Write a sequence for this structure.
């Protein structure tokens, strides 16, 4: 049983998120509290174009959020297509703790959030609205790879297609317990009502306190098709290292849909019970952040299949 706390999360904005999680972990706090606090950072960050407030809208101009959370006992909570609430992850946690259900969607999720005391906000920022209006000119739905990465050359973007941005986070606390969280505004300019992998337990996130946890980022449809995060955890159960398990899950996507796989990005990130971590992506450009007692701001480039 690992007693060395660690937190890892997707993309370079994971560094700031990990720092908030680390404040809790280093003071003997729970992994569950840590991952919730961690992913709230990009949710509130208006510069982050597709997590929480400031996220890009769907094709009809609505910002709709997907999030889920899972703890060491296998409890989980999730919201999908949630509007008007910045901290979707905290609503997901309330679903886990205050309802007999795992998942609430759309209007019902919003009603529940308001009843729990969350504040109703407008999540579409002027920048988001501008990008949407720009997008309306051509109305082409084409996910852009690695847009989450700050170092992504913006000039390579066709028009204004800032696309996906998800934070997935996994942590082990000082008691050796694991938890995970995942939150996103999903693919920019998606169809209204579209739900991605991020709020789906087993697809965008899975945690098994005996084995480890996994999370994903990228084009959610391909992750749902292959139940990606659950697959990664089950492969670790069979003895795969976190990186080897993530690689196998990426290869499964290629096997199922070879033509699609070449054109899109999907990345998996995994942490096992021993505190070992690893990742694998379809394409170059995925990165993840690692934080433990030794070093708080490591940013690691993910291995990948296609250049
Ligand atoms: C989705 N997986 O909605 C999310 C998007 C994403 O980085 O990960 N973006 O399909």
């Amino acid at each position: 049983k690992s007693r060395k706390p660690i937190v890892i999360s997707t993309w370079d904005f994971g560094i700031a998120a990990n720092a908030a999680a680390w404040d809790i972990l280093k003071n003997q706090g729970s992994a569950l509290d840590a991952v919730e606090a961690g992913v709230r950072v990009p949710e509130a960050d208006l510069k982050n174009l597709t997590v929480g407030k400031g996220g890009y809208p769907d094709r009809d101009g609505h910002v709709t959020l997907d999030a889920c959370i899972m703890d060491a006992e296998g409890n989980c909570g999730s919201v999908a297509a949630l509007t008007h609430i910045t901290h979707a992850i905290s609503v997901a946690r309330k679903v886990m703790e205050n309802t007999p259900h795992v998942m609430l969607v759309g209007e019902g999720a919003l009603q529940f959030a308001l009843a729990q005391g969350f504040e109703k906000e407008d999540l579409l920022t002027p920048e988001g609205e501008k990008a949407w209006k720009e997008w309306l000119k051509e109305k082409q739905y084409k996910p852009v790879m690695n847009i989450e990465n700050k170092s992504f050359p913006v000039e390579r973007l066709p028009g204004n297609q800032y696309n996906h941005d998800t934070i997935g986070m996994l942590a082990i606390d000082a008691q050796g317990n694991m938890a995970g969280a995942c939150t996103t505004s999903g693919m920019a300019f998606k169809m209204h009502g579209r739900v991605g992998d991020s709020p789906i337990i087993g697809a965008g996130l899975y945690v098994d306190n005996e084995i480890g946890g996994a999370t994903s980022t990228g084009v959610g449809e391909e992750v749902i098709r292959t139940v990606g995060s659950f697959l990664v955890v089950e492969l670790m159960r069979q003895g795969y290292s976190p990186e080897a398990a993530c690689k196998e899950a990426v290869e499964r996507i290629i096997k199922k849909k070879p033509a699609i796989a070449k054109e899109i990005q999907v990345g998996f990130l995994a942490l096992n019970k021993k505190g070992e971590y690893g990742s694998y992506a379809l394409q170059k450009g995925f990165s993840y952040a690692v934080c433990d007692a030794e070093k708080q701001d490591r940013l690691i480039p993910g291995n990948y299949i296609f250049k």
Remarks:
- The first helix runs from residue 14 to 25.
- The longest strand covers residues 76-82.
